[in-house]
């Protein structure tokens, strides 16, 4: 008999958030590299669950280095020793948080799910948020609390109506080859973009009243899935959040369809493109075109939510429930 004889394997869906500044993306980095992913810390914390079989996180939505997540998701299996009942979802989330060794990662909530549930394949919707700031002429004009949280533009304003018009050309089912890398290994570049919006932010709580020259803007994109493994050139910003430098500026090994679409919409907002040109770019299916090779900086992007149909309806998966007293003690980790 193996070590797992008589034990029960339980699968959980876990929602978690992180500030991506210090991570080389969400995926685990294996080997002796100095780079490290969010998944490395999650799996290190999961070792304290004393599962019979090592716990591995299967991440729903991949994010690149520097990208943040308000709510990402993953499934994991925990197999306790024979005679020990599965952890309740509440205790599992509490235990992972207790043993996480990085302050920029937090487990939000956990659900018990069927053993054949898959966090990536079962997702029905993913929403990304991209934050912009305008009117930032120098890096020191952006609040230290907003650095690495938005793309700061020198421009004092954006033509938001033109951006909204341009975004309409991206809606629906299209071949998004123009927004991925040349030679991408994906079998199909067809995706359905359900929502693409550009709207003013009510204002950052970290900006002082005398700094009212700064304006913040939100771009949101919703789809079941997006294209990954893009290579392009960034519109870089100085000091992780200062004003941008227009043009080709450093290659990216990993990027997002969302960041390329954002760069194109910002070009429209700055008057470098007309809204109708976005449709031409999309229909060209050419990833090497002049405008679509530009990629918005990673630090302005947030994975906002991952949805799973009817799972957890009434409890709003990914949203932290109201505080309630613990009814089950934390497990004894040394047992």
Automatic annotation (TrEMBL):
It is an enzyme of class 5 (isomerase). Its EC number is 5.4.99.12. Residues 17-120, 166-231, 257-308 form the Pseudouridine synthase I TruA alpha/beta domain. Keywords: Isomerase, tRNA processing. GO terms for molecular function: RNA binding; tRNA pseudouridine(38-40) synthase activity. It comes from the Eukaryota. Residues 313-335 are annotated as: Disordered. InterPro entries: PsdUridine_synth_cat_dom_sf (IPR020103), PsdUridine_synth_TruA (IPR001406), PsdUridine_synth_TruA_a/b_dom (IPR020097), PsdUridine_synth_TruA_C (IPR020095), TruA/RsuA/RluB/E/F_N (IPR020094). One of its GO terms (biological process) is tRNA pseudouridine synthesis. SUPFAM superfamilies: Pseudouridine synthase (SSF55120). It catalyses: a uridine in tRNA = a pseudouridine in tRNA; uridine(38/39/40) in tRNA = pseudouridine(38/39/40) in tRNA. It holds the Pfam family PseudoU_synth_1. Belongs to the tRNA pseudouridine synthase TruA family. PANTHER family: PSEUDOURIDYLATE SYNTHASE, TRNA PSEUDOURIDINE SYNTHASE-LIKE 1. This is tRNA pseudouridine synthase. The lineage of its organism: Eukaryota, Metazoa, Chordata, Craniata, Vertebrata.
